[in-house]
Amino acid sequence: MDVKTQRLTSSHIKVGRALPGDVYDENGRLLLSAGFVVESATLLDTLLARGLYVDIATFQTHFGNAPAAAVPAARKFDPFLLRDSLKKRLNRALRGLGREPDAVGQIREIATAVHELAGTDPEGAIAAGLLDGDESYSIRHSVLTAILCDLSGTLLGWPAEKRSDVVCAALSMNVAILDLQNKLVDQAEALSSQQQSLVHVHPESAAGRLREAGLESPMWLAAVLEHHERDVGTGYPRRLAQPGDAGQLVRIADTFGALVSPRADRKALPPPQAVRTLLAEEGGGPWATLAGALTKVLGLFPPGTFVKLANGEIAVVHRRGAAANAPLVASIINGAGNPYMKPLRRDTQQKDFAIAGLTLRGKLTTGYDLGMLWIKTL
Q1: Are 247 and 333 within one domain?
Q2: For the sheet containing 53-55, what is the strand order?
Q3: Total structural domains in the chain?
Q4: Domain span at 25
Q5: Which of 114, 283, 338, 350 has the fewest CB atoms found within 10 Å of its own CB?
Q6: pLDDT tens digit string along 254-305?
Q7: How far apart are the first and last CA of the chain?
């Protein structure tokens, strides 16, 4: 950075409070974006030990010479804002792999932030992943996959180190084909032979780049290498007969993310339909436990699903309801097809608001950002 900065201490950052501005390391690299909420003392201690800096103007505006107690507490938690911060950091880390000295460490830190996001509001994290309309498919897809792996690994009771390695693998699995992925989403014609070759070897290419960047974790590397392998040797690139569970969780979450994403040659599936498809393909196989964990995390109607109600309204699933098949929703379009000025909360257990069908977001427009539905006060 060319601007002067001031180092922050424990008197400036508190657990549960949003950062007032972008935070950098001592070399001027962006670590955390404004609005990020540090949700654990462990994470705060780790960040402070590394060194956190803000520009002088931000420091004087928000801290100055006033005692820490005078700093107003920001208690709003916005999973969509945090998702955007994670994506920026991930894009920078992946594209800096092999050039930036601590890119692997940055991915580790992003995985920790994913865990904080998912742990603070699992439903908000899922909705943030599913409702991401960013054109950069490769990065948003990796973040959604990482969120689902974190939630599933937690539900499975995996040790923190293993869960973290799997999330890191989900974040970095496609580092060798970031731009190709973005291109293929808009490509209606069949893959060229060169494209097929790049896709086929990308797990090995990604693992190789991670090793060259200094990664030594066997679990992380194995999950990247095996995230397209399947039992009885039907996957790629090595046709392994018995891949490990780490890579298989990444594969299953990756598959769900692909199913709910539109491509030039096919429409996206509504999330509930993608859940059913996943269960049909994996429910009776050797990794049924992993698929079951993921589907339990998502629920029958994942947050961010668009539905049509019995009264003709179009709504977005907000949170789980009292019954698995009757979530709480927010109506955004009335029965005549006109958007509401603000979302209206509905309980689909009530007859008039029962779910009558699924729909896709398509060209639905509102006068507000849907992310506001998941902002909450901690």
Answers
A1: no
A2: 5-7, 53-55, 23-24, 30-32
A3: 3
A4: 1-74
A5: 338
A6: 999 999 999 998 999 999 999 999 999 998 899 999 999 999 999 999 999 9
A7: 33
